[in-house]
Write a structure and sequence with these properties.
By secondary structure, the protein is α/β, with parallel strands linked by helices. It has 49 helices and 33 strands. Helix 16 packs parallel to helix 17 and helix 34 packs across helix 35. The radius of gyration is 37 Å and the shape is globular.
């Protein structure tokens, strides 16, 4: 009843603005959690308005608050009830619509394109070549389940089959061929057969050609799937039978025959099995694979617009494949294993062309491949977007295959099953590939993992892909027989379904203002953006992409792309823009609108667009026939179309003209072209109002009226328009233009059903945001309400222009000033500095915080540790990245360093007051930390970047880290751990001898009875080695041994070991490691090895007479390289390992440098890091704080008599006299191979005695890094320390790459004309190799001693070897250089005791010493009794 109020200031509730009332009610009645934040935002706005009035400035834009979606206007056809589907959507051809049986009389198909392909057939005259497969109509009874070719409709039969049970597809062809090859000889000779005996290149692995050379094997596999597996349909052995894929084997000319043969064998197998049981007819699916090229992905890192195949080339190769498959007797065509949807669209286009030329109804299946757990194709599309992109082809069945096992496919199959309108299938792999590339799922496993698909009713057909066999299919058949197939979804009103990388249903869209309206971004339009035009004219496509990205960020659902300009090659510009745009995820996630007045330009763009785009535009102004041609072509490509209200007489201006032309266009499109009505977007022409010409005044009214009539009379269409045309007369005054647009759109959308518009989403305003006076003026103008509407709007425009000029003269208009972080209190400023890595203000902020605290330590324990906890939380949740964390650590160290003198002084004063000696204070007091960790690089190893990163990360999370450096002996490590009483010990190592050192440390820890957990990390370490070799020596519940994959995992591991959940955590690790050990030792039992003698007998046999050794070097002996400038190394730098050092990894499609900069998660941080690296690199070069030096040696060389080692000689005279300078000992592969590939040794690449061959070698280092590291350590600058080490590594690797190039071209000179790009060099596209001792091709580090003696690396270049043969400085590279063109990189892998004993004898070493150095590659346990 009563309240104490300021009556003068009270408002009546009706006086409140609508949005203010909503904000107040939400706050008063606590309606939403964000109510207070909304009111604070509104309060800030109102305060800014008060300030603006005081200062005579324009008010800021009002906050929009909570946006409510406005319901879409419904028409009668929106209310059509959904009805049960009786079959999948059918193609629009007469044959499909009428279920006309395929006559299977292919000889009657005489279209010139089909005949031309047949005329090039390579099928021998004496080989089967019939192409008619029709059967006697009375062969089997005329009712389901019987089927007779030529009599029955296959579409009807499959519909009944797929609705009565889960049908069975087959399994893997490649797996069955491999299995055959394990039991029978299947080498190069068998692949070639008699017919291809003298073929010009190797063909082993070309499984498709076995249909020609070993037809009995392929037919036998078909029959196993039919008889053992019980497959209803089988895929042909034609996965790679295209001219494009066959180019690898120089067999392009055989594409037709390969498809014909693969299909014919399947046809014969199916007919033979069907004849045994006609109630279970079997069908041939002509398999159309993806080819080995992609239309959407650039093969070039430098050029995102590069492609190695065109859409037209794909269509051509697929058309030939379809002709061969159909002639061979295929019943169904299946486009499968689609990892790039553009390839699939090309295949479906080719299929459509064939069906059009032949007049046949052949069911089409489509199977996509999602490459990983992201649920996307290799080209980046989601499963839903993939389906939306290909559904125009009306596939009868769609699903997923390959890449994943059934378990991994579950969420993606469910999502696809929720949207697919046709039948669904899955044929998954038999699990994920194991470490050896095989598949481990048994038939029972595979059936069990597929069960979820059956239980949920997601499938109509199931089969298997990689790793599956007839028993797998049999198990699937037996289990699936207990379940019903997927029910086709009910058929409701059709909707426009677009796609980029993600799908978009237009009818379900609301824009950022809550309107049921599709925003088409206008800024990538030469006519709509001067900035975009300038960029396109300059060829700056990168900056143009930024505009496209901004459009999406600002609320565009679709991106309009228009490059129409007389001074620009429109076709080339459209192609390049689209090709680059599809590689930009932030751009291509949205569908495109390809916009041009020249139809050739939009078609050019269409052929590079993997999604379902909109084409803008077609119209009747070109005449009916050409209009129908254009529409038919767009329908084949699956594009939606903007249809302008133009006809032969011109542009529609009045309501009646707009309606007449749109209705006529609709009738032609829907009834004659069979164009999907939901994919039609009419543009009835938004024309300019407010021009001063009376005849223009009603254009807005005419458009809005026509929109409603067109929507009512042309079911399912959309209405669009170029909104900027409306207010063209008021250009230059954005506020006025956007206000007019807002009024127009609100009414056109909510009252007439307009759906789409080309707009600048960022500038759009809500109706309620327009000032009342301006809103009235806009409504009068748009609806032509008053005669003076244009004059009133001009007045409003002049006022706004005057206000703009005033703001220019008097400063900027009022905006809500964002509070700077420097306005926060000291505690918040410190937190901000730590999170952002800003060290500029730390000392002053710490001092301010110190003044507010009783003790300096309180600053560390309070605001600084609070800030570091925020950093730790952000890092742990993936919201900060490693370089940011290290920058935070640099700020923390600077803050602590500032406080240390105050803390020391405080301690001294307290001790003096207590009568104690102040100099007796313990400098290592560490009780305030969460735990203490000792970090060390083990004996013989000088690499410490990874260890340093871990130390910083742990330090950031309040762990005291004692980093005792590199080259640490076991005794030093354990003594330091005892001295500092640490909680955890961490060991790091990069070279393989370090693995043995770690084992030794674990053994000694056990002997000493130590209780600390032991962490293992570093490049050569692995979880398997830790579990098998290290853990058994020390692991217990109290002190486990744990492998830490990278720095980001270290905090989780250490915190888990030091908290209350340690027992459960350790038990999980123990169980995992025990299982890994069992698997490892079981694998040793299963792994087969050749005897050393047999491995030698299967060596690589190079014909050195036919392919002689490289010529003698221009300069033999030793050459010191001391004058290389660092700036000359920059072109040779490979930046990918740099980002890996910092644990920054981009995700597809932004893996690797420079694409990583575009990655959503790490791109910005990677770019910052790269810029920091460039800055430091420039300083290093300018100050010459690092330099490189190396030594090269080239000597005469020959393989030893037994072919296992390489002798080098000082001179040719010494070679002739047999005076050996040194011998390099080599190791040979010994593990059994499934192929006939040789068992390699590096000695195979050097010619035997009698040939003048040579062996090169080099050792190079980057010097100066250690001094730089010490400098940064003294400055508490961990970030710069690690950056310097990372750059030193990159520089020395670049030096090695450049030096190897110089050897090839000059010092040795065997490739003087080599002209490779840096990218090609990094991809090793040159002759010769440069393996290093200690690496996979020669895993014995002790061979470095021989190299050092031969090239005098220590004496001449200052590069030393540690006891464990680690090179010093740490940034060093060494290599042997082999020049022969047939030399290749390989991994020796595990070797057996007979080779080790032989190798040991050749080296004249103690066996236990040799076994110690070779420990990581031994196939046997040296500790076994």
């Amino acid at each position: 009843d009563v309240g104490i109020v300021n009556a003068k200031e009270m408002y009546h509730i009706d006086d409140l603005e609508e949005d203010m009332l909503e904000v107040c009610e939400n706050l008063v009645f606590n309606k939403i959690p964000e109510a207070t934040d909304d009111m604070l935002e509104r309060t800030a706005y109102e305060r800014a308005c008060i300030d603006a009035r005081k200062n005579n400035r324009a008010p800021p834009r009002k906050p929009r608050g909570r946006i409510k979606n406005i319901p879409r206007l419904e028409f009668d056809w929106d209310k059509i009830p959904a009805k049960p589907a009786t079959e999948p959507p059918r193609p629009t051809s007469d044959a499909a619509q009428n279920h006309t049986p395929n006559p299977y009389k292919n000889s009657s198909l005489t279209h010139e394109k089909i005949m031309e392909i047949r005329s090039r057939s390579t099928i021998p005259k004496d080989a089967p070549s019939g192409i008619d497969w029709n059967q006697d109509p009375n062969l089997y009874p005329p009712s389901y389940p019987h089927y007779v070719r030529g009599r029955d409709s296959l579409r009807k039969h499959i519909t009944t089959l797929f609705q009565s049970k889960i049908a069975m597809y087959d399994g893997a062809m490649g797996t069955m061929i491999q299995n055959y090859g394990k039991k029978n000889k299947l080498g190069e000779e068998e692949y070639r057969g008699e017919r291809f005996k003298g073929w010009s290149c190797n063909v082993k692995g070309n499984n498709d050609m076995l249909s020609i050379t070993m037809p009995e094997v392929i037919k036998g596999i078909y029959k196993q799937y039919l008889e053992v597996g019980g497959s209803n349909l089988i895929g042909t052995n034609t996965f790679s039978s295209t001219t494009i894929a066959m180019a690898d084997y120089e067999m392009e000319a055989y594409a037709y025959e390969l498809n014909y043969a693969g299909a014919r064998l399947a046809r014969e197998a199916c007919d033979e099995v069907t004849a045994k049981d006609p109630t279970n007819p079997r069908f041939v699916c002509g398999a159309i694979g993806p080819t080995n090229r992609t239309g959407s992905i650039s093969p070039s890192v430098e050029d995102a617009s590069a492609r190695n195949v065109t859409f037209d080339e794909l269509v051509e190769t697929y058309f030939e494949q379809v002709v061969g498959l159909v002639d061979g007797g295929a019943d169904v065509l299946i486009v499968e294993t689609i990892f790039d949807t553009l390839n699939a669209k090309a295949a479906l286009y080719a299929v459509g062309e064939f069906l059009e030329f032949s007049g046949l109804d052949i069911p089409v299946f489509v199977s996509g491949t999602l490459v990983d757990q992201s649920g996307r194709t290799l080209s980046g599309q989601t499963g839903e977007a993939f389906y939306a992109s290909i559904r125009h082809a009306k596939p009868m069945c769609v699903g997923l295959n390959c890449a994943l096992g059934a378990q991994q496919m579950v969420p993606f199959v469910e999502r696809l099953a929720n949207v697919v309108e046709c039948f669904m299938h899955v044929y998954s792999n038999a699990g994920l590939p194991n470490a050896m590339g095989g598949y481990d799922d048994t038939p029972e496993d595979m059936a069990r993992y597929n069960k979820v698909f059956f239980e949920n009713g997601w499938l109509n057909m199931v089969g298997g892909c990689c790793g599956s066999t007839p028993p797998h299919i049999k198990a699937l058949r037996e289990l699936s027989s207990n379940y019903s197939p997927r029910k086709l979804p009910d058929v409701g009103r059709p909707k426009m379904w677009l796609s980029g990388l993600e799908d978009l249903v237009v009818e379900d869209v609301h824009n950022h203002l809550g309107l049921p309206f599709l925003n088409v971004g206008e800024r990538c339009n030469i006519a709509g953006s001067m900035k975009f035009k300038k960029l396109m004219m300059a060829g700056d496509y990168g900056a143009a992409m930024d505009i496209a990205k901004k459009q999406v960020e600002d609320g565009a659902h679709v991106i309009d792309i228009n490059v129409d300009d007389g001074m620009l090659d429109g076709v080339a510009a459209m192609q390049k823009f689209v090709k680059i745009a599809v590689t930009e995820p932030e751009v291509s996630k949205a569908p495109f609108m390809l916009d041009a007045s020249n139809f050739k330009i939009v078609v050019a763009g269409l052929k590079w667009c993997q999604g379902k785009p909109i084409v803008n535009s077609i119209s009747l102004k070109v005449g009916e026939e050409l209009f129908k041609e254009h529409a038919t072509l767009l329908k084949k490509h699956g594009a939606a179309a903007v249809v302008m209200a133009f006809d032969e007489q011109g542009q529609a201006a009045t309501c009646d003209e707009k309606v007449r032309i749109c209705q006529r266009s609709y009738k032609i499109l829907v009834e004659e072209v069979k164009f999907p009505p939901e994919d039609i977007i009419f543009d009835p022409n938004v024309l300019t109002i407010g021009t001063g010409m009376e005849e223009h005044n009603n254009y807005g009214v005419d458009f809005i009226k026509a929109t409603k009539i067109i929507k009512e009379t042309c079911p399912f269409v959309k209405i669009s328009g170029g909104i900027s045309n409306l207010s063209f007369g008021f250009r230059g005054v954005t506020k006025i233009r956007e206000s007019i647009h807002s009024v127009f759109l609100h009414h056109a959308i909510t009252e007439s059903g307009m759906d789409v518009g080309i707009v600048n989403a960022h500038e759009m305003v809500m109706l309620r945001e327009i000032e009342p006076e301006l809103r009235t003026a806009c409504e009068n103008l748009v609806f032509n309400k008053t005669e003076d509407a244009t004059d009133k709007m001009l007045e409003c425009t002049q006022k706004e222009r005057a206000a703009i000029e005033l703001r220019k003269k008097g400063g900027q208009g009022v905006a809500v000033k964002e509070k700077s972080w420097r306005d926060f209190d000291a505690v918040k400023r410190l937190e901000h500095s730590l999170v952002k890595g800003i060290s500029e203000y730390v000392n002053s902020d710490v001092e301010e915080a110190r003044q507010a605290c009783d003790k300096p330590l309180e600053v560390i324990e309070g605001p600084l540790m609070d800030g570091m906890n925020v950093v730790g939380d952000l890092f742990g949740s993936g919201k900060m990245f490693l370089p940011q964390v290290i920058k935070s650590a640099r700020v923390m160290k600077k803050a602590v360093a500032y406080l240390l003198p105050f803390m020391e002084e405080e301690k001294r004063e307290r001790m003096i007051a207590e009568g104690k000696d102040p100099d007796a204070v313990d400098p290592n007091d560490d009780s305030q930390y969460a735990g203490k960790v000792l970090m060390a690089t083990v004996k013989g190893d000088v690499h410490d970047i990874g260890k340093n990163i871990v130390s910083v990360v742990l330090g950031c999370n309040n762990y005291k880290v004692y980093d005792i450096g590199v080259m640490c002996t076991c005794e030093k490590i354990l003594d330091a751990a005892a001295e500092h009483d640490v909680d955890v010990i961490g060991l790091s190592g990069l070279i393989t001898p370090s693995l043995d050192e770690m084992v030794d440390v674990a053994k000694q820890m056990a002997k000493r009875g130590m209780k600390q957990p032991l962490l293992i990390g570093g490049a050569t370490t692995s979880k398997m080695h830790t579990a098998v070799k290290v853990a058994p020596n020390f692991f217990s519940a109290e002190h486990p041994v744990i492998h830490v994959l990278d720095a980001s995992r270290s905090v989780t591991v250490v915190s888990s070991l030091l908290n209350d959940l340690k027992e459960d955590y350790v038990q999980d690790i123990a169980d995992e490691y025990e299982e890994m050990r069992e698997d490892y030792y079981a694998g040793l039992e299963d792994r087969n090895y050749l005897s050393f003698n047999d491995a030698k007998a299967n060596k690589k046999k190079i014909d050195f007479t036919a392919v002689p050794p490289a010529p003698a070097p221009k300069k033999s002996g030793i050459t010191v390289i001391a004058d290389t400038k660092l700036k000359d190394l920059i072109p040779f730098m490979d930046w990918n390992p740099f980002f890996q050092t910092w644990e920054l990894r981009g995700r597809y499609p932004n893996r690797g440098y420079p694409k990583i900069f575009q990655d959503e998660a790490v791109g910005a941080e990677a770019k910052k890091l790269f810029d920091d690296a460039q800055k430091m690199l420039a300083e290093i070069i300018d100050q010459e704080s690092m330099w490189v030096k190396g030594v090269v040696a080239i000597y005469p060389a020959n393989a030893t008599e037994d072919g296992e080692d390489v002798n080098i000689y000082e001179t040719e005279e010494d070679r002739a006299a047999g005076k050996i300078k040194h011998t390099f000992r080599m190791l040979r592969q010994q593990a059994e191979k499934e192929s006939e590939d040789p068992h390699l040794s590096l000695a195979d690449f050097v010619a035997p005695a009698g040939f003048q061959d040579h062996l090169g070698m080099f050792a190079v280092s980057c010097f100066g890094c250690d001094a730089l590291v010490k400098k940064y350590e003294s400055e508490n600058d961990d970030f710069s320390k690690i950056m310097a080490q990372a750059l030193a590594d990159r520089l020395v690797e670049a030096f090695a790459e450049k030096l190897h190039k110089d050897m090839r071209g000059d010092i040795w000179g065997y490739a003087p004309d080599e002209n490779l790009t840096e990218e090609d060099m990094l991809k090793i596209k040159y002759d010769g190799i440069r393996p290093a001792p200690g690496y996979p091709s020669q895993p014995d580090h002790t061979e470095k001693r021989t190299m050092w003696a031969a090239c005098k690396a220590e004496e001449l270049a200052g590069i030393e070897l540690s006891d464990s043969l680690s090179m010093m400085p740490a940034s060093s590279v060494s290599a042997l250089v082999f020049s022969h063109s047939q030399s290749e990189y390989f991994a020796v892998g595990q070797i057996c005791k007979d080779q080790v004993e032989n190798y040991n004898e050749r080296k004249a070493e103690k066996l236990e010493v040799t076994e110690r150095w070779l420990g990581p590659i031994l196939s046997y346990d040296t500790d076994a009794p």
